[in-house]
Amino acid sequence: MDTKLSSRKIPLALKLGLPFAAAAVLATACSSGGSNNSPSGSGSAAAGGSSSATTVDVRTGSGATFLTDSSGRSLYLFKSDTGTTSTCSGGCAAAWPPLIAKGTPTAGTGATASDLGTIARSDGTKQVSYAGHPLYYFSGDSAAGQTNGEGVNGFGALWYLVAPTGQQITSLSASSASQSSNSGSYGNGY
């Protein structure tokens, strides 16, 4: 009788274990739709919006005209980047998420299409670049039009908004000096 009982336990254990294993696999598959490294809630094409391509637009606010994504989220350049190579990964990319290309990037109102491009990141994703500068969000910006990352010194170099000409914007940096010194959670290195 022990033989019958033990043989019934194995199939019963399998029957109970398979649904849990299947649920775990399904949950993992659903949550691993790919990392786009853009801030949550940004509503941008890079964050999985309905747009077929990532669009770079231009916005005027905070006393300057600068690049944004299609949702109005500010885009930054990192002075540590060399040429078209991003030097921001790991903790840096968590604080300064790269603008990941969804399709071929397009120029919105005020942006120059010939300045748009992509670079290959070390993780194999394509990051949008403008006038040779890889573009990033700032995790400290929680809404469209915010420019809290302007002039911040983090991860070994300064971060600036990008003008439609492709140049860094430093005119806001003086007002951002207090943010620079208080950017502790955004790090000063890897």
What does this entry look like structurally?
The chain has 190 residues and is α+β, with helices and mostly antiparallel strands. It has helices spanning 2-31, 91-95, 177-181, and strands at 55-61, 64-69, 76-78, 106-107, 116-120, 126-130, 133-134, 153-154, 157-162, 168-169. It folds into 2 domains: 1-33; 45-186, no CATH class. Helices cover 21% and strands 21% of the residues. A hairpin with a 5-residue loop joins β9 and β10.
Summarize the structure.
With 190 residues, the chain is an alpha+beta fold.
What class do helices, strands and sheet pairing give? Answer: alpha+beta
The total domain count is 2
Number of helices: 3
Mean pLDDT, nearest integer?
A: 75
How many strand elements? 10
Share of β-strand residues: 15-25%
Question: Largest sheet, described in full?
Answer: 4 strands, antiparallel
Q: Topology as H/E string?
A: HEEEHEEEEEEEH
* Through-space gap between termini: 64 Å
Shape: globular
Radius of gyration: 22 Å
Q: pLDDT under 50 segments (min length 5)?
A: 10-51, 174-190
**Estimated helix fraction:** 10-25%
Any descriptors?
single chain; 190 residues; alpha+beta; four-stranded antiparallel beta sheet; 10 strands; 21% strand; disordered C terminus
